[in-house]
Structures are given as C-alpha cells and as structure tokens.
Write a structure and sequence with these properties.
about 230 residues, mainly alpha
Length: about 230
C-alpha cells in the first residue's frame, strides 16, 4: 500500500496544485454567497463536479428549482457519460471499488487514468483507486480551506474561476507531450472550435463531444494505449 501511495502522490501532483487552488476558489465563492465551510465540505464530498459546483453557487443563490438544476448539470457535466464508457469494463473488474471509481471520474482524474501505466510490482487496482481518492481529497481540502478563508478574510473573487480553465490547459499540454500521435487531440480541438463558433459557449460542449466521438471511435484505440505507445 505504501508503494502505491507514494506513486499515486507523484502522479497526482499536478492535480494537487490545481485542485487545492480551485477548491479554495469554490469555497470562497460559496462563503461569499452565505454558506460556510461545512457546506463546502458537503458539496465537494457528495457532488464533486468541478465546474458544476461553481455553477451551483449561482443556482443556490438564485433559488433555482430541481428541474433547472438537473438540466444545468446535464449540460455542464454531460461529457462524463463519455468518460465512463471508456473505463466500463476496467472498473467492473475492480469489484467493490467500481461505484466509487465511476463517481470520482472527473476531467483531471480521467486524464490521469487514460495515460496510467502502473509500474511492475504495484497493484494496478489499488493504484487507480488511490489516484482517484487523492484527487477528491485535494478538492475537498481546498474547498474547506476556501470556506474558512472566505469567512474570515476580505477577499476579491473576481476572475478566480479562470483557474479551472488554466488547469485544463496544463493537463492538455502534458498529454500532448506524452502522446506520439496528436490526431485525437487535433480532432477534439477542431470539433470544439467549430461547435463553439456555431452554437455559442453555452451550448457547444455536448455537441462537440458527440462530433469528436463520431470521428474518433471508428479508428480509435482504448484509453491509455496511445500513452503506452509513447513510453
């Protein structure tokens, strides 16, 4: 267990740096909306949805109904449906850990698991579980810290949510450098750009995922294989 934990800590270091800051940003925004750190702990522990949690602050303060919240969640986090399909058989093989692995599959965790090639001598299932659990721990810890800081210190939160975009860019750059073939990334970028220009920033995510999947699946390969070829 100790060896897997040390390895998982090294693998998740970029996510640690991003998630703690992003979690703090969420905790501060939630605190400024009138909800203290226990709410940050509860939401980050149960919802754990990154960008949707930022949107949730506005939904809570605006008194949005259940249907509105559900539709917003589908629009913002619907891409996770595609993530789960990629790892369906792999997670089933992990037995009792399967439900948590599905729950914890965020953008950043998905990126790490796709490129994961567990070294010989380490338990692969335990390693994947630790990577996922550590990522959530970073997010929850940052959220609680942000809730505490937001309640005790004056804080201007203008533009702080851009940190999530910055984290996406860093992870994309790491995957680009690790991959031997860049065709999937270029297709994804092209699909996203075209859908953004045609549909606008509020509606482009799910159509872009559908277009990219339609272009990639016929000649695609399992998650993590491309990174394996590069190593």
């Amino acid at each position: 267990m100790k060896q897997e934990l040390r390895y998982a800590l090294r693998r998740t270091l970029p996510v640690l740096c991003g998630y703690v800051f992003l979690g703090v940003a969420f905790g501060v925004l939630l605190s400024q909306a009138g909800y203290g750190w226990p709410w940050a702990l509860l939401i980050s522990g149960i919802v754990y949805a990154g960008s949707m949690q930022f949107a949730l602050v506005g939904l809570i303060t605006g008194g949005a109904g259940v249907l509105t919240t559900a539709l917003m969640t589908l629009a913002v986090n619907g891409r996770h449906l595609f993530y789960g399909v990629t790892f369906l058989e792999r997670f089933r093989a992990m037995g009792k850990a399967c439900p948590y692995m599905v729950f914890s599959l965020t953008d950043e965790t998905y990126s790490l698991l796709c490129s994961e090639q567990t070294p010989p001598g380490l338990n692969p299932d335990r390693t994947l579980l630790l990577i996922s659990a550590l990522d959530q721990l970073y997010w929850v810890a940052g959220s609680v810290l942000g809730g505490i800081l937001g309640a005790s210190l004056p804080f201007d939160a203008t533009g702080i949510d851009f940190a999530m975009t910055a984290l996406f860019l860093v992870i994309f750059a790491e995957q680009w450098l690790a991959a031997r073939r860049h065709r999937p990334a270029l297709i994804g970028l092209a699909a996203g750009l075209v859908c953004l220009l045609v549909l606008g920033q509020d509606r482009f995510i799910i159509p872009a995922m559908l277009v990219a999947a339609a272009l990639l699946i016929p000649g695609g390969q399992p998650a993590g294989e491309e990174a394996h070829h590069a190593s």
